[in-house]
Amino acid sequence: MVEAWYMDESQEDQRAPHRQRPNRAVSLEQLRRLGVVYRRLDADNYETDPCLKEIRRAENYSWMDIVTIHKDKLPNYEEKIKTFYEEHLHLDDEIRYILEGSGYFDVRDKDDKWIRISMEKGDMITLPAGIYHRFTLDENNYVKAMRLFVGEPVWTAYNRPADDSPARKQYMKFLAEDA
């Protein structure tokens, strides 16, 4: 099951857990109020999983690919890792399904504090358009993930600050309505 917590302020290795002491856990309900959707699926059978098929149909996830993030598998690995960890947002939802390995998605809460979401095999996450976030591998240095999109994929990341983007304004309106 997914685990999430508020991060400490340490600038040490980004792949470390960065838990506050004492740990400040974040519930799935707290993530949901930020627009983050979590699902648990059968990653061993992703090619034939009826649950994944139904999610793709219901959410109109018409495009998908699989990416492996490891120094021996990803071209320009060091550059990509730095890029993934820069705080940014997208104009569309970001959907990731972990097929193997593990890593962290970090998202900002309503008070602009970092929440770290530990992702491992079988975890699927949807980050809403306009949420500031970043990704890093954990200390295992390996993840294989499915990327899903509605329509054609758009890879553009807008580094912070991007508060004037329509997606950010819409996301802030969502947060205000949920308050």
From TrEMBL:
Q: Name the GO cellular-component terms.
A: nucleus; plasma membrane
Please identify the protein, giving its name as recorded.
acireductone dioxygenase (Fe(2+)-requiring)
Query: Gene3D superfamilies under this entry?
Result: Jelly Rolls (2.60.120.10)
PANTHER family membership: ACIREDUCTONE DIOXYGENASE
Q: What cofactor is needed?
A: Fe(2+); Ni(2+)
Which Pfam family is one of this chain's hits? ARD
Give the EC number(s) under which this enzyme is classified: 1.13.11.54
Query: Example GO biological process term?
Result: L-methionine salvage from methylthioadenosine
Ranges for the region named Disordered are 1-21
Q: Where on the tree of life does the source sit, at the highest rank?
A: Eukaryota
Catalyzed chemical reaction(s): 1,2-dihydroxy-5-(methylsulfanyl)pent-1-en-3-one + O2 = 4-methylsulfanyl-2-oxobutanoate + formate + 2 H(+)
Q: Which organism is it from?
A: Rhadina sibilatrix
